[in-house]
Specification:
The complex is a heterodimer of chains A (249) and B (665).
Chain A (H helix, E strand, L loop, with lengths): L1 H5 L7 H4 L14 E12 L2 E2 L3 E8 L2 E6 L4 E8 L3 E8 L4 E5 L13 H6 L3 H6 L1 E6 L6 E7 L4 E7 L4 E9 L2 E11 L1 H4 L3 H9 L2 E4 L10 H9 L24
Parallel strand pairs in A: 7-13
Antiparallel strand pairs in A: 1-2, 1-3, 1-12, 3-4, 4-5, 5-6, 6-7, 8-9, 9-10, 10-11, 11-12
Chain B lengths: L1 H16 L50 E10 L6 E10 L12 E8 L8 H8 L2 H20 L12 H6 L3 H9 L6 E7 L4 H14 L16 E6 L10 H10 L30 H7 L3 E9 L3 H7 L15 H5 L5 H6 L1 H8 L10 E5 L30 H8 L3 E4 L2 H5 L8 E5 L21 H12 L6 E7 L1 H7 L3 H21 L5 E7 L2 E2 L1 E3 L33 E6 L3 E2 L31 E2 L2 E4 L5 E2 L3 E6 L9 E3 L2 H10 L1 H9 L1
Parallel strand pairs in B: 4-10, 4-11, 5-20, 6-7, 6-10, 7-9, 8-9, 14-17
Antiparallel strand pairs in B: 1-2, 2-3, 5-19, 11-19, 12-18, 13-14, 15-16
Classes of the chains: A alpha+beta (249), B alpha/beta (665).
Chain lengths: 249, 665
């Protein structure tokens, strides 16, 4: 999934991302919410079990929570230029931090929109609008993108900068993100701040320090099984076991 | 010893030259036989004597003798009669006169053999003696001898008279007394620690820096490669074959090896058990220097509470107790202090250890790790915070403001701008925390939010502040991120941090005097990092192997090219190139084993070398690391040593223990 998702990435500045929200007259916040998605993947006639992704926003932070694997990943936008990533292993109440801009630990993230919306502003800008239906908070924009590499169909909720339905087909594989519920602090008494605060209280380890500790059972397990580098979309459970049918290494 | 061997060889050459002889002339012909005398006359009356018969005529000249010939034949190494090569001389009469000494004409055979255990033939030896490498190495040996004599105070002995015999003549008691007289001659001591900077890392960084300077690279020297003394350090911890930074730095700073994972305490500690700290604390070189009245400083590109810098000032049952939130409740209740707390309160803690002791505390502290000094409260964030709440401390204390209250003459800085504004001649005390966690990798330093000084800049500022004390100083400088880049499997990062580290060493060397400043450069441990294959001279060290005489990359048995640098374990291959967009590669699992890198530029910052064993993080290694030294006491660095010897070299050079004893007694 990760490599497949990379097809969606375009180099667009974080500043450009800010302009993506249309003025629909909706009074509900797009910056504090919880959107739940069902993610399905099909290869030919073989469908993998559906997984759940909960996207949380709280100001300049966004989280992708994967309940099946008990892993949550967060990204925080700092000064519109730096993105700090943290991976939370919820079952262990442990966190691994990645310092912003550390190229050595991975390509430096510059496209916050990709994490914030599940689709980057760059890809959005390339899509062709088909029709707009509804109004206010319920405004939906249907878009498509066809090129040699992929076929994308999207139902976009501009009021919240959220995807409602997002299908990508490429190389014999089809993946769909479908919004199943949407909650806001005002409407559903949702405490997005508490969601992030709870995880920020976990015992945290800088990624750079993992290799130095020989005795911490949690870190030792990570080092030996390598799943500290996995997680993400949930190809590994928090205990390091690969999820069948999702990804092969 | 080398000189001695060469002398023997030279003599042998001279001997061989004398044996290249011409063939002897033939002997003169034998004289002719005299003519036969005339017959006697018959008896008669006595009468007059008859006439003597006439002399016989001369015989015919004899024919010329046969020429004597001598033929010399060079003998290769391994010859039955001359195992080390030589020349065989066959001689005899050329009886058939054909000008050639046939086998049946040889009447005598002699051998002149090359002496000793030399393995080279005559011609090769002459080539060596005139070779630039040979000559320069010979000069280096001579220079080393001079350095040693200067270090031991025997430089008055003339060069020509110094040989094995004459050196022995001043040995034993005289030399020992001389050496002992050098104790305490270092006013200043600087210990540089490249975290994870094993031998292969030094070699590869040397080549890379050389190549970046337009050279082939292999012949280049990093700043500390030029130091006159070096040795090896055995890095194992008391309970670990492959060590960690906590145990190794404790050994270097206290002279006592200890367990993995513990700071400033001996092997009787139980890791993580606060109650076992008391009574097992070790005294460090920094503490002794402080007691002795010297200025003291700590610089690190890691968090200043990380294992290596912590071992200079803290005592902790666990290296991870960097702030109170990292400690178990029972450890806090039992009275153990977190490492950040121990740094800020170093002065009072040390004074409490010795009755009547009055010290002035650590003058210079620079590194990363603000999170461990700030409360878990966003209002305490630094202006360049990279997290919504920068501090981790759960006790509500702000150790930065505590430090500022304690040292009203001190200067606290957190970014490049503040650092640049420090006046080293008027600043008595400096506290710099430039990052929430570790400082940036050198390769990424330009990406920092508010800017960070380089390790060379920090070293320069530290020395310029510390040297304001006429009593001298002790400074520890750590390059902490060499280790981290290796853990990530990224040679580019590790080598660039090593080069930055070497630049810091050069700056320290430039700012100090060899006559009063001991500089030691070493590592705490190595990494499973290798330089392999048979790349030709000058082949890009971060590139693929191109064999000698070839232009294209060599291929392995799987038909694909391979890099010179690699790791035994870790995350393995990644090709992140120079890209800086949103692909978060850390989301990918370990990808070890062979990859087809035919079309990959392996010299980019984002390239991660292949690894054999898949692990989430590349590991330390257990082999020895180098120690490089110059200045007073540096001559003690040689051979293969326990890592704890480094403390004793520093103590010899600066006489820390005696000086400190004189204060506390």
């Amino acid at each position: 999934m990760q490599r497949f998702s990379l097809l969606l990435i375009a180099m667009f500045s974080v500043t450009a991302m800010k302009t993506a929200k249309a003025d629909t007259g909706c009074t509900l916040s797009s910056q504090s919410l919880k959107a739940t998605y069902q993610v399905t993947t099909t290869r030919g006639n073989s469908a993998s079990p559906a997984t759940t992704l909960m996207l949380w926003r709280d100001g300049n932070k966004v989280a992708h929570q994967y309940p099946q694997t008990n892993i949550t990943e967060t990204w925080q936008l700092i000064r519109d230029t730096h993105i700090k990533a943290v991976r939370y292993f919820d079952g262990h109440k442990r966190a691994i931090e990645y310092q912003p801009n550390e190229r050595i630990h991975g390509k430096v993230e510059k496209d916050f929109s990709y994490r914030y919306q599940l689709i980057s502003d760059g890809v959005l800008a390339k899509m062709v609008e088909q029709e707009t239906v509804g109004e206010g908070c319920n405004t939906e924009v249907k878009m498509t993108l066809n090129d040699q590499a992929q076929h994308i169909t999207l139902t976009w909720l501009p009021a919240f900068r959220l995807i409602k339905d997002f299908q990508v087909e490429a190389k014999g594989m089809k993946r769909e993100w479908r919004l199943t519920s949407l909650a806001h602090p005002d409407k559903e008494k949702l405490d997005t701040h508490a969601f992030f605060a709870e995880r920020e209280a976990y015992q945290s380890t800088d990624y750079a320090d993992i290799g130095d500790d020989h005795t911490d059972p949690f870190l030792t397990k990570m080092v030996n099984q390598g799943f500290i580098e996995a997680g993400a979309s949930g190809f590994y459970h928090q205990d390091g076991h690969a999820i069948e049918g999702q990804h092969k290494h | 010893m080398n000189l001695f061997k060469l002398s023997i060889i030279a003599i042998a050459v001279a001997g061989l030259s004398g044996c290249f002889l011409e063939g002897d002339d033939g002997s003169d012909g034998v004289d002719g036989v005299n003519g036969v005398d005339g017959a006697d006359g018959s008896d008669g009356a006595d009468g007059s004597d008859g006439n003597d018969g006439a002399d016989g005529s001369d015989g015919q000249d004899g024919s010329n003798g046969a020429n004597s010939l001598t033929v010399q034949t060079s003998l290769e190494v391994g010859n039955e009669n001359c195992p080390n090569s030589g020349v065989r001389f066959d001689s005899g009469l050329d009886t058939n006169g054909d000008g050639v000494l046939g086998d049946d004409e040889i009447t005598d055979t002699n051998y002149v053999c090359a002496p000793g255990v030399s393995q080279v033939a005559t011609g090769e030896l002459l080539t060596s003696l005139n070779n630039d490498w040979f000559v320069s190495a010979q000069a280096e040996v001579e220079n080393n001898k001079q350095v040693w004599m200067q270090a031991t105070g025997t430089s008055t002995v003339s060069t020509t008279s110094v040989n094995n015999v004459s050196v022995q003549a001043v040995a034993t008691d005289d030399v020992q007394a001389l050496a002992e007289s050098l104790r305490g001659t270092a006013k200043n001591v600087i210990l540089f620690v490249g975290d994870g900077m094993g031998i292969s890392t030094v070699t590869a960084a040397r080549i890379l820096e050389g190549q970046m300077n337009g050279l082939d690279g292999e012949e280049y020297q990093l700043s500390f490669d030029k130091f006159p003394f070096s040795g090896l350090s055995k890095t194992y911890n008391v309970d670990a074959q492959t060590p960690d930074s906590a145990g190794t730095m404790t050994a270097m700073m206290s002279g006592i090896k200890t367990d993995v994972g513990v700071i400033g305490v001996d092997e009787d500690i139980e890791r993580g058990e606060c109650s076992t700290v008391s009574g097992n604390e070790l005294v460090t070189a920094l503490e002794l220097a402080e007691i002795a009245g010297k200025s003291t400083g700590i610089v690190s590109t890691a968090r200043i509470t990380h294992a290596t810098p912590a071992a200079t000032y803290a005592k902790s049952a666990d290296r991870n107790w960097e702030d109170i939130s990292d400690m178990p409740e029972d450890a806090v209740t039992a009275g153990c202090e977190d490492i950040a707390d121990q740094l800020v309160n170093f002065e009072s803690n040390l004074e409490a250890s010795y009755t009547g002791l009055d010290i002035d505390g650590i003058e210079v502290v620079m590194g990363g790790g603000r999170r461990h000094f700030l409360p878990n409260d966003a209002s305490a964030n630094s202006p360049d915070a990279a997290s919504s709440t920068e501090g981790d401390r759960t006790d509500g204390r702000n150790l930065v403001t505590e430090w500022q209250s304690m040292y009203t003459n001190g200067v606290y800085v957190y970014d490049q701008s503040g650092f640049d504004g420090v006046d080293t001649e008027t600043t008595e005390r400096l506290f710099g925390l430039f990052n929430e966690s570790h400082m940036q990798y050198e390769a990424d330093r330009g990406n920092d939010i508010a800017g960070e000084p380089s390790i060379a800049e920090m070293t320069e500022t530290a020395i310029n502040i510390l040297d304001n004390n006429d009593e001298g100083f002790f400074l520890m400088v750590e390059s902490g991120r060499i280790d981290h880049a290796h853990h990530a499997g990224n040679a580019y990062g590790a080598l660039h941090d090593t080069m930055a580290f070497a630049e810091a060493v050069a700056k320290a060397d430039e700012l100090t005097d060899d006559s009063d400043t001991l500089i030691i450069v070493t590592a705490d441990h190595g990494h499973v990092f290798t330089i392999a294959g048979y790349p030709k001279r000058g082949n890009p060290i971060l590139g693929k192997v191109v064999n000698v005489g070839e232009e294209d990359a060599a291929t392995a048995s799987d038909g694909t090219p391979y890099t010179t640098l690699g790791y035994t374990n870790g995350l393995g291959y990644r090709n992140l190139g120079d890209e800086t967009n949103s692909d978060a590669s850390y989301l990918e699992a370990a990808d070890t084993g062979r990859k087809d890198i035919t079309d990959v530029d392996t010299t980019t910052p984002g390239y991660h070398q292949e690894a054999l064993i898949p692990l989430g993080s590349e590991t330390h290694s257990g082999e020895d690391v180098g120690i490089y030294a110059k200045g007073p006491g540096a001559f003690l660095v040689n051979g293969t040593n326990e890592q704890s010897v480094i403390f004793h070299v520093m103590d010899f050079a600066a006489d820390f223990v005696s000086d400190a004893d004189s204060v506390v007694e």
